[in-house]
Design brief:
The protein is an all-alpha fold. It is about 85% helix and about 0% strand. The longest helix has about 35 residues. The two termini are about 35 Å apart.
């Protein structure tokens, strides 16, 4: 029978409570990713053009990444509670404000939903995940996966519910309701969530240093690490592949032969794969290491691009569904790898900041997706996925130099 130090059971109960509350909070913050569901009602309610509204999602993604960095600095200067409260306020202003003022024009939507909403979610996401993960030094992959599953499923579960309420209550009322509900839940998280002491961390995972799962690299600068840039190359490509499919899933499914009803259902199923991937790959990391997790996800990304390329080449609807599922899975796995990589390689001291930088790959992945589609033409889907298939092989090959750099870093950190 496993011998536990005094206080271990209490610490385990506390961290389970924090994990449940944080996952529930992220479920609501993840509503901002339901934009594809809200886009058509927003156009109708606010009198906007479809060509204009699409840019809101890109603005939100960029604001999310900058919000993650901003959140780490707010937490550093003012503390965890201040960072999460700031997240709650920005989300409320962004969502409720968009509902009340969105009719004023597309610039207001860009500012409120895209910029303020994205910043608020980025601040909350980074602070909540970084803090909650420190309670799981022995199961950081599992905790990351559960937290990010909640974030990923927010659009599917609460987004679907919210859209169904719009015909009865109107977009303005629904957006205001979302804003206040998320504000209240995030504020509760701010009042409850706390960081563990060093003694608690050692009690929960006394073998962490020996196994190398919690490296003492806290003083290393992430920007001076070649390993970080090798990771970024892999992450940017996988993110671009995921976004190319997720952003056009319904329309692409119809291009290969599926009807509109199934195409809409497929969007939800891909979102489910996105959420499940976060738990599955978290467990894979806990059982193996960062290198293996990246290799597995790289293989899934290559399979995704291959299936979709063949689906467009030979009009194979079933193969497109397989590729779309793989795309949702590979995209959902990246945040788990980012969380594990930032913690294990660079330690706990600057974990919130390092996590925000690792997640900044989302910006460059989004830009890479836009550039590739701009070069080949957004309507040439077969050519687009031929290019993405080639890039997936580059990401897969990048795991080799990453692994060599990773092994070198781990030896150096153990010797230190």
């Amino acid at each position: 029978m496993e011998e536990r130090k005094p206080g271990t059971d209490q610490a385990r109960r506390t961290r389970a409570k924090y994990l449940a509350l944080s996952t529930f909070t992220l479920l609501f913050l993840g509503l901002i990713y339901a934009f594809s569901m809200f886009a058509a009602p927003m156009c109708e309610a606010f009198g906007l053009k479809k060509s204009e509204i699409g840019l809101t999602f890109n603005i939100m993604m960029i604001a999310f990444c900058f919000g993650s960095i901003l959140g780490s600095q707010i937490e550093k200067m003012l503390g965890l509670r201040a960072a999460i409260v700031c997240s709650a306020v920005l989300f409320l202003v962004g969502f409720a404000g968009c509902g009340l003022l969105g009719h004023s024009g597309i610039a207001v939507v860009y500012l409120l939903y895209g910029t303020l909403g994205g910043l608020g979610v980025g601040i909350g996401y980074n602070s909540i995940i970084a803090t909650t993960n420190t309670w799981f030094p022995d199961k950081v992959g599992f905790s990351s996966g559960v937290l990010m599953m909640g974030f990923g499923l927010g659009s599917l579960i609460l987004g679907t519910l919210s859209v169904s309420l719009i015909p009865a209550f109107g977009l303005t009322t629904v957006f205001v309701g979302i804003g206040f509900a998320t504000f209240a839940i995030t504020l509760l998280n701010a009042l409850v969530l706390r960081k563990p002491t060093a003694d608690v961390v050692r009690t929960l995972a006394p073998q962490a240093a020996e196994t190398g799962k919690d490296a003492a690299g806290a003083d290393d600068s992430i920007f001076k690490s070649p390993t970080f840039y090798a990771y970024w190359i892999w992450a940017i490509i996988v993110i671009a592949i995921g976004l190319a499919t997720i952003g056009n899933c319904a329309s692409d499914a119809q291009l290969v032969g599926w009807d509109a009803g199934f195409a809409t259902l497929l969007v939800g199923l891909v979102s489910t794969c996105n959420g499940l991937a976060r738990v599955v790959m978290g467990i894979v990391y806990d059982k193996t290491n960062v290198k293996t997790t990246m290799l597995v996800d790289g293989l899934v990304a290559t399979a995704a691009a291959t299936c979709i390329f063949l689906a467009f080449s030979f009009t194979l609807p079933v193969l497109y569904v397989v590729g779309a599922f793989c795309c949702g899975f590979c995209y959902g796995s990246v945040p788990v790898v980012a969380s594990a990589f930032a913690r294990q390689r660079f330690g706990l001291k600057k974990y919130p900041f390092n996590l925000s930088i690792a997640n900044f790959a989302i910006v460059f992945g989004s830009l890479l997706n836009v550039v590739v589609q701009g070069i080949v033409g957004g309507d040439h889907r077969q050519t687009l996925f031929a290019v993405l298939l080639t890039m997936s092989l580059i990401a897969l090959a990048d795991v080799i130099p990453f692994s060599k750099l990773w092994n070198r870093d781990m030896r150096r950190l153990r010797n230190r």
